[in-house]
Specification:
Layout: H1 2-5, H2 26-34, E1 38-40, E2 46-48, H3 55-62, E3 71-72, H4 74-82, E4 90-95, E5 107-112, E6 119-122, E7 125-128, H5 130-140, H6 143-154, H7 160-168, H8 176-184
Parallel strand pairs: 4-5
Antiparallel strand pairs: 1-2, 3-4, 6-7
Helix pairs in contact: 3-4, 4-5, 5-6, 5-7, 5-8, 6-8, 7-8
């Protein structure tokens, strides 16, 4: 049987589950999007319609927008962890006090204090943890949007009581009261 194996035709290549902006011409991309063959992911990446990407694939699709010391954050981190949320600019966070990343149209850069427990690797890409993502969403997004995203995060391990305890340590910081109000209504 092993002797005959060399005569079998090679397996067809597995098509990619997502494509970056560099993988298609502008015209091909526009036509495939218009016809519903592809759907837009974050940051200009596209995937075949109906494809359910894993968290590591979602992270890899937007990893090019993340500088070495940064991490995917807020709406983009929710999307990586859960698949929820629509396309948009990639949101990243850099540690406070570091040199800001070069401006780029595909991303929004935020600065924040980051503890080593606030960031994890998803595949090869740094992403804020589900818990840190939930805290940031509660603090920095409008209540209607944050409530919807937080409900999805709860199903993926976000602990409301732990978030409320963490917010108690941030008394006097921006948007803490709003975040506590949002958490109280989950």
């Amino acid at each position: 049987m092993h002797e005959l194996a060399r005569f079998r035709p090679p397996r067809p290549a597995t098509p990619p589950r997502w494509l970056g902006p560099q993988d298609l011409t502008t015209a091909d991309r526009a036509a495939l999007l218009r016809d519903g063959v592809l759907v837009v992911l974050h940051g200009g990446a596209v995937a075949p319609a109906g494809t359910r990407l894993r968290p590591d694939e979602r992270a890899a699709a937007v990893a090019a927008a993340v500088p070495a010391r940064g991490a995917l954050a807020r709406r983009t981190a929710v999307w990586v962890h859960t698949g929820a949320g629509g396309p948009g600019r990639v949101e990243i966070v850099l540690p406070a006090g570091t040199r800001r990343a070069e401006p780029a149209p595909e991303r929004v850069v935020h600065e924040a204090a980051l503890d080593r427990h606030d960031v994890q690797l998803v595949g090869r890409t740094r992403v804020t943890t589900v818990q840190r993502t939930g805290l940031d969403v509660a603090r920095w997004l409008e209540p209607d949007e944050s409530t919807d995203l937080l409900r999805v995060l709860v199903d993926h391990g976000f602990e409301v009581s732990a978030a409320d305890r963490a917010l108690a340590t941030l008394s006097g910081h921006r948007h803490v009261l709003r975040a506590r109000h949002v958490l109280a209504h989950l």
